[in-house]
Amino acid sequence: RAVLEREREEARTKLMESLAPGQVREGVIRKLMDFGAFVDLGSGVDGLLHISQMSWARVRHPRDLFQEGQTVRVRVDKIDPETRKISLSYRDMLENPWSNVESKYPPRTPVQGKVSKLMEFGAFVELEPGVEGLVHISELSRKRVNRVADVVQEGQDVNVMVLSVDPQAHRISLSMKDLEPVEPGEVPPEAKEEPPPPPKKARKPTGPLAGGLGRASGGEKFGLNW
């Protein structure tokens, strides 16, 4: 028994030494938890696939995507040699939907999405799997909004206007009020008045003024002596 345990420990140590960030490994889902899944990489070495690294889309629970005993291909993200903790990623094996959001959702483009989550400060709207934008509470309506739930609900289809896109930070700012009809007398957001040009400065005369000393007087002009 001691010999078997020593052999297992040697196999674990050998596998740990062979692991490196960026490697793609095959493993088996050993245990599903609320926060993620433990993946058996072999020789008794487990890695943690956190729920945030399972998909580019919002994941409510790991069981929505995986089941225990399932074989998966994962990428090694981080390794702590002291604690032997291994962080894994599954979503990085998939195409990143944020790679071309700037061309798909340029500013001032109206799009349709589904409300995926309500917060006190606004509502997240899913434009496509893995791509969400935020409608801030101030952009929900032209009328005063006290609670986000008074305007939208989770799962509701909404029309929104793209305000700005930051693909590096995975952020898209959206507006619903910009698509609401403009009330009479109200200036639409895109019709911003340009400030009036600054007043022109009076030009200084470059020659002698009329009637000054530099011109002949009326008498001299007609040959008259005063």
Short description:
The chain has 226 residues and is mainly β.
What is the general shape?
A: elongated
Straight-line distance between termini: 138 Å
Q: The biggest beta sheet, please?
A: 5 strands, mixed, barrel
Number of strands: 10
Helical stretch tally? 3
Instruction: Tell me the fraction of residues in β-strands, as a range.
Output: 25-35%
Query: What structural class is derived from the secondary structure elements?
Result: mainly beta
Strand order of the largest sheet: 1-2-3-5-4
Kindly state the percentage of residues in helix: 10-25%
Overall pLDDT level: 85
Q: What's the SSE pattern? A: HEEEEEHEEEEEH
Which segments are poorly predicted (pLDDT under 50) over 5 or more consecutive residues? 211-226
| Cα Rg | 35 Å
List keywords for this structure.
226 residues; 10 strands; mainly beta; disordered C terminus; 5-stranded mixed beta barrel
